[in-house]
Design a protein that fits this description.
The chain is α/β, with parallel strands linked by helices and 424 residues long. It has four domains: 122 residues, Nucleic acid-binding proteins (OB fold (Dihydrolipoamide Acetyltransferase, E2P), Beta Barrel), CATH 2.40.50; 154 residues, Rossmann fold (3-Layer(aba) Sandwich), CATH 3.40.50.261; 44 residues; 42 residues, no CATH class. Helix content is 40%, strand content 21%. It contains twelve helices and 14 strands. A five-stranded mixed β-barrel has the order 2-3-4-6-5. Helix 4 runs parallel beside helix 8 and helix 5 runs parallel beside helix 6. Pfam families: Exonuc_VII_L (PF02601), tRNA_anti_2 (PF13742). Heterooligomer composed of large and small subunits. It comes from Microbacterium lacus. Bidirectionally degrades single-stranded DNA into large acid-insoluble oligonucleotides, which are then degraded further into small acid-soluble oligonucleotides. Its main location: cytoplasm.
């Protein structure tokens, strides 16, 4: 039932220029503008009121929201609008079907005669304070970088052991295990039970997280809980748990509630799964899909290898069909003929050069003989040498009694000078 907790101003006199029933008759009716001004004057005296109800319409246009709110016990409804500047201050998860309380102020538009309410505040019933705290915590953790994608650890492709934190004998545990084993029958779990709501939720979940994180065989940790009232999910937005998840060295998957549930654990965890079933699909691969992929890759590899071998065979046949490889002796024959010609030419050149050099040597030998002292001596001349080895070129150089060596055409002999003799 819609309730009003207003700052009512009942009993206040109407505006001075307001039209009263006695002021209008069939003979002197009032104007539409004056009537609308009167209505607006009364509406403005109401001030703001708090109203409780269910959102039945939520349309966003150019940043502003135009919606309707329905009474919880009757079919009574009101229209409201939320300006973009106000919307920034409201919870981001408001949607159709939410049970809310809102602070509204009546607006009457004189030109069109439309009646609506402007919303200055709106929050979920029963979660107002918690939601405000969560938004402040969300902003704080975002500022510290706990939501940054760069710090999130990758999920292993095929974990050897999956750590599971959930309620004992819960549907969430069954969903995760059953769907994971359907996808990969050899998957192994190490389950740590913890309360998933209430006062024990946070300390038990932190204890289970630390125990699984300390186990070196655990490759990924899933924190799972089924859906429920948002009040029951507040433990998974507790700052102590969020910081423990951020500090864990093992990748953590958040699988809390349903698709529309969004505790802060979703933002801090390394991976957000919309449901426990979705978590099972995200942490292990599908064996059938992997087998199909392996078969596909094998087929592609076989086809590529066959194509490569066929291509190489064709290339080899093309090379072998070339004349130089089909009859390689032709290349050798052509080269041998060329080598024989070059060899013959070389021999001719060498022979001619040897003959020319032989003739030249003979000529030089003949010239040498002509100029040689031996040729002169052979014609009857002689050379006289003093004991010092000097050649006697002047008779005065051989004094009387001096020993001389006389060289003739064939040999030498000793002689003694009798001095210079007269000319004959």
């Amino acid at each position: 039932m819609t309730t009003f907790r207003a700052d009512p101003v009942a009993g206040e006199p109407p505006p001075p220029d307001a039209v009263r029933p006695r002021d209008s008759t069939s003979d002197s009716p009032t104007s539409v503008a004056r009537l609308n001004d009167t209505i607006r004057g009364f509406v403005e005296t109401w001030g703001s009121v708090w109203v409780e109800g269910e959102i039945t319409s939520w349309n966003v246009r150019t940043g502003n929201v135009f919606g309707r709110m329905k009474d919880l016990g009757t079919d009574a409804t009101i229209s409201f609008r939320i300006w973009s500047s106000t919307r920034q201050r409201l919870p981001a998860d408001l949607s159709v079907g939410d049970h809310v309380i809102a602070c509204v102020k009546a607006d009457y538009f004189v030109k069109s005669g439309d009646f609506s309410f402007s919303v200055s505040a709106m929050r979920h019933v029963g979660l107002g304070d918690q939601l405000e705290k969560l938004e402040r915590l969300r902003a704080k953790l975002r500022g510290e970088g706990l939501f940054d994608p760069v710090r999130k650890k990758p999920i292993p492709f095929l974990p050897h052991v999956v750590g599971l934190i959930t309620g004992e004998k819960s549907d969430a545990e069954k969903d995760v295990r059953h769907n994971a084993e359907l996808r990969w029958p050899q998957v192994r779990f190490r389950t740590a039970y913890a309360a998933v709501q209430g006062d024990r939720c946070v300390p038990e979940t932190i204890g289970a997280l630390r125990a699984l994180d300390a186990d070196p065989s655990v490759d990924v940790i899933v924190i799972a809980r089924g859906g429920g009232d948002p009040q029951h999910l507040l433990g998974f937005s507790d700052e102590r748990l969020l910081r423990a998840v951020a500090a864990a060295s093992t990748p953590v998957v958040s699988a809390i509630g349903h698709e529309n549930d969004h505790p802060l654990l979703d933002d801090v965890a390394d991976l957000r799964a919309s449901t426990p079933t979705d978590a099972a699909k995200r942490i292990v691969p599908d064996v059938l899909e992997q087998r199909a992929l392996v078969a596909q890759l094998r087929s592609r590899l076989s086809m590529r290898l066959s194509q490569r071998v066929a291509h190489d065979i064709a290339q080899l046949e093309q090379l072998r069909s070339r004349p130089v490889l089909r009859t390689p002796e032709t290349m050798i024959d052509a080269r041998s003929q060329q080598q024989w010609l070059l060899l013959s030419r070389g021999r001719d050149v060498i022979d001619r050069r040897l003959e020319a050099q032989a003739r030249r040597a003979a000529e030089l030998r003949a010239a040498l003989r002509t100029l040689s002292p031996a040729s002169t001596l052979a014609r009857g001349y002689a050379i006289a040498h003093l004991p010092s080895g000097a050649i006697v070129r002047d008779a005065s150089e051989a004094e009387a009694g001096a020993s001389v060596v006389v060289t003739v055409g064939r040999g030498s002999f000793a002689a003694r000078s009798e001095g210079e003799v007269g000319e004959r």
